[in-house]
Write a structure and sequence with these properties.
The chain is of the alpha/beta class. It has 17 helices and 38 strands.
């Protein structure tokens, strides 16, 4: 503590005063820079000297932070929050004990007559009586700050009310509202010096209809923050002529748009939304006098503005602190062109959205003069045909073109300047463009390093798009055009018939392609570890995939690839899962000796499969699934025999098999399956008599027989002496009547080996719990046949 005290004493007076005021905050209370700056503003602690008071406050805050008096904690809701170390908080109480009083905790303290800042915690073990007693000892006439942090009882609130009646110079007040504490119970017109007012309610609090009109007579109020309890503002809200910050925590962020006559609040610095209405106090000219607003501004229902002259009264070009602008038409028409022309924004703008604009052409101001513009969204402008020279916006990082009437992205979009095009662009989205036919590329663009920083490209729902810079070009050319691309998404563009083998570079690690003329589906994710490819029209697999860029692949799914005849995977070492479905032409698969990481193998509906090389690499395979592959078992058997010649004791780690061929249990392969625990068979009939390897049966715990349609009496149940459960599925039967279930249950329970019978519906499944005793199938098979 002495060292900290020394650091405090060596600070300038203005920082000492700001830090000591922090004793008003609860221990471990997270706060933002703005929250503290607004409170310092209310006390008059900030020396303006021609600068914005908020800027001075942030400079003070940063100075204290750099000196170690504040520390950051995890950000919440995209805002950085801070707190104090316990020792720093104790120091604040020590240096401010003559001015700051916190009422909480088990012990009371002698109250100094110089107390100016009061912080009240009622959620303590002290009880109402002790808190009320301490409040009555205070002299309200000297108070400059009253902060109440939690719920208060009616008795405590009466004491607070009495204290407030004595105040003459109150500058900051924070109240937590509960049924006993409502703003209508307070005489706000007495707080003529109030600069900061924060009214908080818990989420379950019943809402008020309208903010009390008395609050609108606080002509010196600079900061007003209200919770979610109010749905309306009084008509005279704009009488708060000194208001700089109106923070409304309403659910839909609409309170700003309800300020009638907002133009009178000339010091206001945030206005999230303004809805243009044909009603006094909501004309677009109300925005003209708000030169201080910054951050984000959304202007809605611009269809109510009828001319360029009317639109220009908003004076958006003069709002130099504005970062983001959202212009919205509900029903755009051709005459909107002159209106949009009159809405020229400040050149400091960083983000611009134009939604529902009804004009054909671009505004003249959408040009390189917007040197700070980083994000541009042109959405729902269904008549907009001619794009501006977007390529010359040197700071543009994010561009979205959606629901426009543009037919071609070409020279007009790139611009005429002999300089780099889209020099900073990192994200490009083109979607819902039914008229778009071409995205034109030329060798001249290559000279200007167009799109050299583009990382994400998304093209969706462009049914007439034929030509892309990605189409019909060699991999080397595509790499020159998009050297930094990391994410590629192309969905529902059926006339795109040519793409380079993907991924074409080491950086391209996320791909989502579906509904194109050449590829039905291609998904690459998890940093090139997972790949799913589905149905190419006539392309070969190596024309779709650049295998040399997929060495880290761990999960691969290939489905419905009619042109696939052979699959060579010998170069892959990290594979854990391989699924091949519906590849009717594939005849051979080569796994390679380094395929030892494989854990799951699924081959379905590959009816031409005749050869599998490298079966020995299945040594760590845990799950195997095969269906509709008549050549799978003979091929596996051939590979196993070759292994057995050199390694007679070779075994696999397989624990689960899903198959549709009972022939598996008749082959010598079974002796390699010593770890098998689950065996599911799916087929329609059992006719042949089979012999089974004893090595196979020793570890078999469960057989799940599905798809039995007939001849159940022929199934060789006597081959499975180690069964614990038998599941029989009837795909064409949804359920059994109660009488049949009772009959089957009763009869089966008479059998020595059947302990439990369970029925499942849609479709019908019957599970028999089997004991470890030897069972005689002939005793219970007639029950099933019934």
């Amino acid at each position: 503590m002495p060292a900290l005290r020394l650091s405090y004493e060596h600070m300038p007076f203005h920082l000492q005063r700001c830090f000591s005021y922090c004793a008003i905050l609860p221990e471990d209370h997270p706060f933002t820079c703005e929250e503290l700056v607004y409170q310092w503003m209310a006390q008059g602690y900030l020396d303006v000297r021609g600068k914005r008071v908020e800027d001075i406050g942030r400079a003070y805050f940063n100075d204290l932070f750099n000196r170690g008096f504040f520390q950051t904690i995890q950000s919440r809701h995209d805002a950085v929050h801070y707190t104090f170390h316990d020792l720093i908080h104790d120091l604040a109480h020590v240096v401010a004990f003559k001015e700051c009083l916190t009422i909480n905790g088990p012990k009371s303290r002698q109250i100094s007559p110089t107390i100016r800042h009061l912080s009240i915690f009622t959620n303590t073990e002290r009880g109402e009586e002790a808190i009320v007693r301490e409040l009555t000892c205070l002299k309200g006439e000297h108070l400059s700050t009253i902060f109440n942090w939690d719920e208060v009882s009616s008795g405590t609130f009466r004491s607070i009310s009495d204290l407030l009646k004595e105040t003459k110079f109150l500058r900051a007040m924070r109240l937590t509202l509960f049924p006993e504490v409502q703003p209508n119970n307070l005489n706000f017109q007495n707080f003529i010096s109030l600069r900061y007012l924060k009214l908080i309610t818990p989420p379950v609090f019943e809402s008020f209809q309208t903010l009390p009109e008395e609050i609108c007579r606080l002509y010196h109020l600079e900061v007003l923050q209200i919770g979610q309890m109010w749905s309306m503002l009084p008509d005279n809200f704009s009488d708060l002529v000194s208001l700089r910050h109106f923070i409304a925590e309403d659910e839909y962020d609409l309170m700003h748009s309800k300020i009638q006559g907002v133009g009178k609040l000339t010091s206001l610095q945030e206005l999230n939304d303004f809805v243009v209405q044909q009603k006094k106090g909501f004309e677009i000219e109300q925005l003209g006098s708000l030169k201080e607003i910054g951050g984000s501004l959304g202007i809605w229902h611009l269809e109510n503005v009828k001319s360029k002259t009317e639109a220009s009264k908003a004076r958006l070009a003069e709002k130099e602190k504005l970062d983001a602008l959202y212009l919205h038409w509900e029903d755009g028409e051709q005459e909107n062109e002159s209106v949009l022309e009159g809405l020229k924004p400040t050149t400091n703008l960083e983000s611009l959205t134009i939604y529902g604009y009804g004009g054909v052409a671009s505004p003249t101001w959408l040009e390189p003069s917007l040197i700070f513009l980083k994000s541009l969204f042109l959405v729902g402008c269904k008549a907009w045909e001619l794009l501006p020279p977007i390529g010359e916006l040197e700071s543009l990082k994010c561009l979205e073109l959606s629901e426009l009437a543009v037919r071609e992205i070409g020279p007009q979009c790139y611009g005429t300047c002999q300089s780099m095009k889209f020099s900073s662009l990192e994200e490009l989205t083109i979607e819902k463009m039914p008229d778009l036919e071409k995205w034109v590329w030329s060798d001249q663009l290559q000279q200007f390093l167009c799109f050299k920083k583009l990382k994400e490209l998304t093209i969706r729902d462009c049914p007439n798009l034929v030509d892309l810079p990605l189409s019909g070009s060699a991999t080397s050319e595509v790499l020159k055009r998009f050297p930094s691309l990391e994410t590629l998404i192309i969905n529902e563009c059926p006339l795109i018939f040519q793409l380079p083998p993907l991924p074409y570079s080491s950086l391209l690690s996320t791909i989502n392609i579906s509904g194109t003329g050449c590829i039905n589906g291609l998904n690459l994710w998890d940093n090139k570890e997972c790949l799913r490819v589905d149905k190419s029209s006539s392309l070969k697999l190596d024309e779709v995939l650049a295998f040399h860029e997929l060495s880290s692949l761990r999960y691969l799914e290939i489905s419905n690839f009619s042109s696939l005849e052979s699959l060579d995977l010998h170069s892959f070492k990290a594979f854990r899962s391989l699924k091949i479905w519906g590849c009717q032409s594939v005849t051979s698969i080569t796994f390679g000796e380094h395929f030892v990481s494989l854990k799951l193998l699924e081959i379905t509906s590959c009816k031409s499969l005749r050869s599998m090389k490298g079966v020995k690499s299945w040594v760590n395979l845990g799950i195997l699934q095969f269906r509709e592959c008549p050549g799978f078992i003979p091929t596996w058997e051939t590979g196993s025999k070759e292994i057995e010649r050199t390694e007679p004791d070779f075994s696999l780690s397989l624990t689960t098999i899903y198959g549709d061929s009972l022939a598996l249990i008749t082959l010598p392969i079974c002796k390699q399956l010593s770890s098998l625990k689950y065996f599911q068979l799916e087929f329609s009939s059992f006719i042949e008599k089979h012999e089974v390897s004893p090595q196979f049966l020793t570890s078999l715990d469960l057989v799940d027989i599905r798809g039995c349609k007939k001849n159940l009496q022929s199934f060789p149940f006597d081959l499975f002496p180690s069964l614990k459960e038998i599941c029989i599925k009837f795909p064409r039967i949804q359920s059994l009547p109660t009488s049949s279930r009772i009959e089957i249950t009763d009869e089966c329970k008479k059998l020595r080996n059947i302990k439990e019978v369970h029925f499942y519906t849609r479709p019908l499944r019957i599970k028999f719990k089997v004991s470890l005793e030897e069972m005689d199938p002939s005793r219970w098979m007639p029950i099933i046949k019934q």
